[in-house]
Amino acid sequence: MASIAMLMALIAAPAALATPPNVGISASASTARVNQTIGFTANASGNDGATIASLTWSYGDGAGDSGASVTHSYGATGRYTVTLTATDSNGETASDTQPIRVVGNPSASFGFAPGTPNIGDTVSFDGRGSNDPGGSIASYAWSFGDGTNGSGAQPSHSYATGGDKTVTLTVTASLDGLTAFASRTIHINIPPRASFVFAAVNAPAGQDPFTPVLGQQVALSAQSSNDPDGSVTSYAWDLGTGTFAAPASVSWLLTNFTTAGRKDVRLKITDNGGASTIATTSFRVNSPPVAGFDVAPTAPETGQAVTFSSTASDPDGVADLGATTWDLNGDGTYGDATGATARAVFLTAGTYTIGEKVTDKGGAATIATKTLTVAGPPAPAPTGGDGGGTPPTVVPGPGQPVVLGVGARTSATTPAGTTATISSASRPAAAPPLRGLRGVRVQLAGSVTGARTRITKIMVLGPAGAVVTAACHGSGCPRRALRGTIAGAAGVRLKGLERTLSAGATITISLRKSGYATKRITLTMRRAKAPKRVEACLVKGTDGRTKVGSCPAS
Fold first, then answer.
1. pLDDT mean over 201-207
2. How many domains would you assign to the chain?
3. Which pTM does this prediction carry?
4. Which range of residues forms the domain containing residue 277?
C-alpha cells in the first residue's frame, strides 16, 4: 500500500519547467551604406545549467548565417530586421531582433548666380542641394577654380580674371565621413577689346591725314574692336570733352572739331555681358597757316629783279610753319621758287598773277595771290647774276615756262580731288594662328570613398563639330579609348568612364576642331579628394614641334 501511495504522489506532483536561454544582439552599426560590412555579435547564455547549443541568424534579406560573431552587407537600400535565435542543450530556444537601416551614398549639388558674371562681380554659390540619406552634411569644401578655396553651404566669391573656371564642391557626411563631389564650369565674362583708328576725310595731297585741320571732317572707326567671348553691343565717344556721348550701336563716327590743339579722344565699348573697356588716342587738330607776302618794287620794269618776301604766320606758332613755294608765272604750279624769299625777272610786259603757297608741319596749306603789272619793252634774258645774290627765276611771260634760278626747285603736282582714307598697308597674309576652343566644359559627378572614386556621370560640352577623345589609364579603366563628336548643346556623355576608379588613375580628354588648338583636360583620381583637373593645349613651339602649353585666346 505504501508503494502505491508514493506512486500516486509522484503522478500528482507537477513537473519542473526548463528556462529558455538569454539572448541579445550587438551590431557595429544600425545605419549603414549599401555594400557596407556590418558586424553582429551574439550575447547568449543558458539557464539551469544548460549551455548554448546553436546560434542562427536571419538578416531580413533572405540571407542567413550561424555563429557567435558574423558579418553581413546589404546590396540595396531599405529597412531590415536581423533575427538571432539561440538554442540551448535542453532544446529550449529564444530570439532577439535588431533593426538595420541601409541608405545610399551622399550626393553633392550646387548652383550659382549670376550665371555669367563679370570680373569683380560677387558670385553667390549655394550647395544646399547636396544630400545625405543617412543624415546631415557635416561640411562643405569649395574649390573656386582660380586657386582659391572656401567653405560653408552658401559662400560668395569674386574673380580677378575672365574665362572658364571649374568650381568643385566636396561634401562630407556626418554619418560616417563619406565624401561626394560635384564640378561645374562658370564662365567669367572677358571684357571687350577696344581700339580705333582715325583720319581726316578728303585730305589733300601733302596733308598728314592724322593731323586734321580745324573744321575738317574726321572719320573715327572702331571696327577693330572685338569681344573674345561674345559681341560688342554699344560704342560711346568722348571727343576730348571729358564726357562720353550717348552709346550707339554703330562702330564709326564722322565729326569735326571747332577748336584747335591736342585732342584726347576716348572710345568706350560695352559687350553683351555688360563689361566695358576704354581706349584713348591723342592727336592734334591743326590750324592752317596764314599766307601773305610783300613785293618790291611794286611796279617793276621788264628785266628788273623783283623780290617777294613772305609774311606768312601760323596760329599754332611760328615753329609750325613748314615749306613755302611760289608760282611766279601764274600757271597754278608751285615750285618756280622755294623759301621765304623769291626773286624773279620778267622779260615781257604784262599782268602776272603771283602766288605763294605756305604749308605747315601738319600738311595744311594756304595760298595767297597778288597781281603784278610789269611795264617796258621786251628784255633779254640775263646772262649772269644781277648783283642781288642768288640768280633770280626768269619768267619769259605770263603762263610761259620759267627758267629756275640757282637753289630753286619744282614741286610735284598732285591731281585735284586726292583723298585720304583710313586703311592699312597690305602684305602677304601669314597662316592664321590657331585659336583656343571656347566654351569647353567637363561636368563630373560622383563620390570618393578612401582610395576609390566612383564616377556616376561625365559629360563633355563644347563647340559643335569638335571631336572628343577620352583615354583612361590606371586601375578600373576600360581598355579602349572613347570617341565622339559634339553635335549640339547636349554635348558628349562618356558612359564608358562612368565606373569606379582607383587613386592614381587618370582620364585624358582631348577636343579637336579644325582651325583651333587641341584642348586637353586631364583628371587624376586622388585618395579621399575630388579628382585633380589640369587643362592645357597642344601648341607649336618656336622649333616647330608640337608640345603641351598654355591655350591661345579664343
1. 87
2. 5
3. 0.60
4. 197-285
